[in-house]
TrEMBL record:
Entry GO MF terms: fructan beta-(2,1)-fructosidase activity
Keywords, ordered alphabetically: Disulfide bond, Glycoprotein, Glycosidase, Hydrolase, Signal
Keyword Transmembrane set for record: no
Protein name: fructan beta-(2,1)-fructosidase
Signal peptide: 1-25
Sequence similarity: Belongs to the glycosyl hydrolase 32 family.
Organism: Aegilops tauschii subsp. strangulata (Goatgrass)
Length: 589
C-alpha cells in the first residue's frame, strides 16, 4: 500500500480508489490516470479551461516589465550603489522586433524601478534594433555600453554608448558617439548578419582592452577576439578567443574567471590569481552551454580543459527554459551574478492576448565547484528577504508511494528547500552514459510515477486537488563507475490542462559522491507561472514556465514531497516559506 502522510485528500483518494483501482506503485500516474477518466465528465475542456489572459500568471518576484516582449538580459552592473539591469525590449509589441535596451535599477536585486529606455533605434546602424551586449567599467570609472546595432538589412556591427552624465547613479541617459559603429562586420571568414553580442571587456598583460564577439566564422561558431587601447578603436586579433566546428553561430558569449571552490567572484579587469580557471559560455540550440578551461595569456586564447566534439554533451548553465545569460562581477558583495531569460511556453497568440511575454530568471550567484569542473548556482541571498511564515519539518520517512503534503505555505508563491537522504544506496539502478545525449527523453521515460531502485523522489508543485494538473521536480539515483549519477527532472507534461503549451520533461544529470555527502538537496522557487529549481546545491538548475488552470480559477494548489522509488528515503530537513510580492517595475522613475 502507499503511505499518504498528513494528506488533505484522503476521502477523495479513497473515492478514486474505489471507482478507479490503480497500480499502487505509481501514485502520480495513477492519480492522473484516474483524474483523466474524470476529466471528460467533470471538466469538459471547452467550458472548464478559463482564459490564459490572467494577471495571476504574472510573476511576483521574477523580473518582468508591465507589458510587451522581452528577451536577453543586457549589461548588468553595480554602479554607485545601484544594480542596473538592461534588457532586450520591444516597446511596441508582444512579439520580437524593434529591440531597444530597456532599463531598470534596484538597490537590492529584488525590487526594481523602471527607467526610460537606455538605447533606442535612432541611427542607421541600429535602425533594425539595438541588440544585446555588455557594460564595462573603464579605468576612469565611466561605464561604457557595447551593443550590436542591426541596420536596415540586419547586418550587424558593434556600437558604443557612454552615459551622458556618469555622476548620475541612475545612468538615465546614454549618448552614442559619432565614431559608431566601432566594429564593423569586416574581415576574413565573417558573415555580416551573424556577428553580435559583445562581452564585457577585460585587460590583458599588455594593458590593452579585449572583448569577444559571437560570430559565425567560416560557417562555424566562434568567440572572436578584439583589442583596443581606448575602448573605442578596435582591431580584430588574428585568431579567435575560441572557436569550434561543432556548431554554427554562438549568441551572447560570456567570458569570466573563477576560483575553484570559492563562492567569491573575480573581476576580469583586475589581477586574476594563478589558480583561477576561466569559463566561456555560449548560447545555442535554445540553451546556454559552457566550457571550463584556462586563459592562455601568451597565446591570448581560451583553452578548454576538455574538448567535447558532441555539443549535446556540453555542460549547461540551466537545463530548462533559460537563454542568453549574462554575468557580472558585483563589486558590492564580491560575487559573480548571472541573469538569464525565460521565454513564455505558450503560443504567440496567447502572448498577444496576455499583452506580455518573457521574464528574467532569478539573479543567481555563480561559482566553480572545488575541483573546477562545473559551475554551481544559487539564487542571490537577497531573494530570501521575501520569505514569510517558515514551515519546518525533520525526519519524514517516505516509503514507496508516499506523499507528504507541505501545508501552511502559499503554494503559488513559495520557496522550498528539501534534503533527501536515501536509507541505502544498494538498490540504485545502473547508469547508461547514452542517456546523457538526450536527458529530456530520459526524463520522459523515467517518469515521476515509474518506480526505480532509488528514486524518483522529489517535489510535486502547483498540484490541483485531483492531481489532474501538477509539476513534478524529482531525482533518480544511478550507480556509475566511481560515484553516483543523479538525474534531476522538471516534468511539465501534466502542468496544465490547457492545450497548445510547450510542456517538456526537462532534465539534467550531475555526478555526486552520495556515499560521502549522504543527502541530495532540492530548492524550488514557485512564482505563479515560473518554477525555478536547484538540485544538488546548484549543480543542476532548471527554469520552467507553467500555466495551471487551477491557478486562474482560484482553486489553489497543493505541494507535496514524494517518493515513488523502491528504496525508502528520509526527508531529513524540509523548509518552506511563502514569498512576498516584490516591487518589480510597478513604478517608473
Ligand atoms: O534581440 C536580439 C538579440 O537576441 C539574440 C539572442 O536571444 O538573438 C536572437 C535572434 O532571434 C531569435 O531569437 C528571438 C528571441 O530573441 C526569436 O524570437 C527569433 O524568432 C529568433 O530568430 O534575434 C535576431 C533577430 O531576430 C536573430 O538574428 C537572432 O537569432 C541575440 O543574439 C541578439 O543580440
Amino acid at each position: 500500500m502507499f503511505h499518504h502522510r498528513h494528506g488533505c485528500g484522503w476521502p477523495f483518494l479513497l473515492l478514486l480508489l474505489l471507482l478507479f483501482p490503480f497500480d499502487e506503485s505509481s501514485l502520480l500516474r495513477g492519480q492522473a490516470a484516474a483524474a483523466d477518466s474524470h476529466r471528460v465528465v467533470l471538466y469538459p475542456q471547452s467550458t472548464r479551461v478559463s482564459s490564459i489572459v490572467s494577471s495571476k500568471y504574472r510573476t511576483a518576484f521574477h523580473f518582468q516589465p508591465p507589458k510587451n516582449w522581452i528577451n536577453d538580459p543586457n549589461g548588468p552592473l553595480y554602479y554607485k550603489g545601484l544594480y542596473h539591469l538592461f534588457y532586450q525590449y520591444n516597446p511596441g509589441s508582444v512579439v520580437p522586433g524593434n529591440k531597444t535596451w530597456a532599463h531598470s535599477v534596484s538597490a537590492d536585486l529584488v525590487n526594481w524601478l523602471r527607467l526610460e529606455s537606455a538605447l533606442d533605434r535612432t541611427e542607421p546602424y541600429d535602425a533594425k534594433g539595438c541588440w544585446s551586449g555588455s557594460v564595462t567599467v573603464l579605468a576612469d570609472g565611466r561605464p561604457a555600453i557595447l551593443y550590436t546595432g542591426a541596420d536596415d538589412v540586419k547586418n550587424q556591427a558593434q556600437c558604443i554608448a557612454f552615459p551622458s552624465n556618469s555622476s548620475d547613479p541612475y545612468l538615465r541617459e546614454w549618448t552614442k558617439p559619432s565614431s559608431n559603429p566601432v566594429i564593423r562586420p569586416d574581415g576574413p571568414g565573417l558573415t555580416p548578419n551573424q556577428f553580435r553580442d559583445p562581452t564585457t571587456g577585460w585587460t590583458g598583460p599588455d594593458g590593452q582592452w579585449r572583448i569577444a564577439v559571437g560570430a559565425e566564422l567560416d560557417g562555424y561558431s566562434a568567440a572572436l577576439l578584439y583589442k583596443s587601447e581606448d575602448f573605442v578603436s578596435w582591431s580584430r586579433v588574428d585568431h579567435p578567443l575560441y572557436s569550434s566546428n561543432s556548431s554554427t553561430m554562438w549568441e551572447c558569449p560570456d567570458f569570466f574567471a573563477a576560483l575553484p571552490g570559492n563562492t567569491s567572484g573575480l573581476d576580469l579587469s583586475a589581477a586574476i590569481p594563478n589558480r583561477a580557471k576561466h569559463v566561456l559560455k555560449m548560447s545555442l540550440d535554445s540553451c546556454d552551454k559552457y566550457m571550463v578551461g584556462v586563459y592562455d595569456l601568451e597565446a591570448d586564447k581560451f583553452v578548454p580543459d576538455n574538448v567535447v566534439d558532441d555539443r549535446r554533451l556540453w555542460l549547461r548553465i540551466d537545463y530548462g527554459n533559460y537563454y542568453a545569460s549574462k554575468s557580472f562581477f558585483d563589486a558590492k558583495k564580491g560575487r559573480r551574478i548571472i541573469w538569464g531569460w525565460a521565454n513564455e511556453s505558450d503560443s504567440s497568440s496567447d502572448d498577444a492576448a496576455k499583452g506580455w511575454a518573457g521574464i528574467q530568471a532569478l539573479p543567481r550567484t555563480i561559482w566553480l565547484d572545488s575541483d573546477g569542473s562545473q559551475l554551481l548556482q544559487w539564487p542571490v541571498e537577497e531573494v530570501e528577504s521575501l520569505r514569510r511564515n517558515e514551515t519546518n519539518h525533520q525526519g519524514i520517512e517516505l516509503k514507496k508511494g508516499d506523499m507528504f503534503e507541505i501545508k501552511g505555505t502559499d503554494t503559488l508563491q513559495a520557496d522550498v528547500e528539501i534534503e533527501f537522504e536515501p536509507g541505502t544506496m544498494d538498490e540504485a539502478d545502473a547508469f547508461d552514459p547514452s542517456w546523457l545525449l538526450n536527458t529530456e527523453k530520459h526524463c520522459r521515460e523515467a517518469d515521476a510515477s515509474a518506480p526505480g531502485g532509488l528514486g524518483p523522489f522529489g517535489l510535486v508543485v502547483l498540484a490541483s486537488d485531483d492531481m489532474e494538473e501538477h509539476t513534478a521536480v524529482h531525482f533518480r539515483v544511478y550507480k556509475s563507475k566511481h560515484k553516483h549519477m543523479i538525474l534531476m527532472c522538471s516534468d511539465l507534461r501534466r502542468s496544465s490542462l490547457r492545450s497548445g503549451l510547450y510542456t517538456p520533461a526537462y532534465g539534467g544529470f550531475f555526478e555526486f559522491d552520495l556515499e560521502k555527502e549522504k543527502k541530495i538537496s532540492l530548492r524550488t522557487l514557485i512564482d505563479r507561472s515560473a518554477v525555478e529549481s536547484f538540485g544538488g546545491g546548484g549543480r543542476v538548475c532548471i527554469m520552467a514556465r507553467v500555466y495551471p488552470v487551477a491557478l486562474v480559477d482560484d482553486r489553489g494548489a497543493h505541494m507535496y514531497a514524494f517518493n515513488n522509488g523502491t528504496t525508502a528515503v528520509m526527508v531529513s530537513q524540509l523548509k518552506a516559506w511563502s514569498m512576498k510580492r516584490a516591487q518589480v517595475n510597478v513604478k517608473k522613475g
